[in-house]
Amino acid sequence: MAEKNDVILRFQNVTFEFIDERPILEDASFSVREGGKITVIGQNGAGKSTIFKMITGELKPKSGSVSVSQGARVAIAEQVMADAKMDLSVTEYFEEAFDEKRYDIYKLVSDVLDVVNLDVDHEKKVRDLSGGQKARLLLAYALIQNPDILLLDEPTNNLDAEGIFHLTYFLQAYEKTVIVISHDTEFLNAFTTGVLHLDVFLHKVNQYVGDYYDVVANIAAQIERDRMKNARLQKEIVDRKEKVNFFANKGGKMRKLAAKLKEEIEEAEDSKVDTLREDKTLRGFEIEPQEWKEDVVVITKVQALKNHVPVEKEVNIKLRRGNKMIIEGPNGIGKSTFLRALAKGEAPGATISPGVKVGYYQQDFSGLDYNQTGYQALASVMDMPDNETIFAVGGHFLLKSATLGQPIRTYSEGQKGLLCYAQFVLQEPALLILDEPTNHINFRHLPVIAEAINDFTGTVIMVSHVADFVEKIKFTETLDLSKLVR
What we know:
Elements: E1 7-17, E2 23-33, E3 37-42, H1 48-56, E4 63-68, E5 74-77, H2 90-95, H3 105-115, H4 131-143, E6 149-153, H5 161-173, E7 177-181, H6 185-189, E8 194-199, E9 204-209, H7 212-247, H8 253-271, E10 297-306, E11 309-319, E12 324-328, H9 335-344, E13 350-352, E14 358-361, H10 374-379, H11 387-396, H12 401-404, H13 413-427, E15 431-435, H14 446-455, E16 459-463, H15 467-470, E17 477-480, H16 481-484
Helix pairs in contact: 3-4, 7-8, 11-13
């Protein structure tokens, strides 16, 4: 294993592309030192998750090399729990982290659950945990392997404020190497010592030293400097070309001058720099609601968890067009369970009126068919699909026609999230059920999405732990599950 501050990870002239020859990285080089706290940022589809998969060895570069210091262990906290793990008990889930049977597994699990501040029965099924509890379990699974390089992929998704605080404190004290993909800017700025910036247009990786906010400001300044330099050079090129056209027909010394100007044009062209591009920000959009004059949702009874035991409470909630309800409470109290049961029509004491169209944003995207193309997913929610509308709406959500033709399983998590919002626009639902609707979404897009939800004149039921996002939406109702079980 590497000594403190030695290079523990190195990418050397790495080029990677998928089978369809879509380039992701071209001649990328960077290194990470032991104990570094590194953030990976970039546009959707720039290759952030691909970088992680090459570090773990799941993917191999087309050319170049990815090297990890001899003896260094790598573990990744995935951002989504795999379906194959759902029916395992908590103990069985952690047993899969080891090649050999561990007779001290109970103590190991207890210790690692304590580290991530998670109190659950070891025999509980993974599928019965809340989204926030699964997020902590994914982190604990990586930590129990005692890695020298810890990879975290959107670790704050589904975590409540307490969970994010606990994770931040843990990472600040963690002495080993951490590499993080996240869109949570405040979380990143609390512990970041460097940034890897991936550019989806140039397929390059640029490395910066400093905290997150400083690096982002430096990147923006560099982009502006490069743009100004290229604009100046382009002006010089146009000016010289006009002179070349004038002098070339004059003969004698003027032709020599024209030849000299041509050389200067070539030099100016060569001096242009590849300009980094900032993430495209989603443009404003509108979700038209289905016409509905009666009650959309009626809730007479709600079930929540108190010390892991279900508790039922009677309520009297009727939601009509224009009503927006936020459901509050800590991780593990049953918020996502309630939304899932409501969407399926299986929530005791809660009913959606027959005929109501429901748009459901699931925090893990389990409602998407990964074998469908993006085009098929959009067409499936329309009464009368047509190409022009599908491609126009997909493009609005930064999903190009080529992307829409690809299976959803090839999409980044951010692209899956934008696909869900594109579906809502085409579906025209009367009811939006939104379970952590900021999950996997680039922070630049969040104000636009919040505005669209706030302006939606149908009915909304939402669970979200992102305070800045929630504050932008005017809710007419609040259902606090923690108050119901006191």
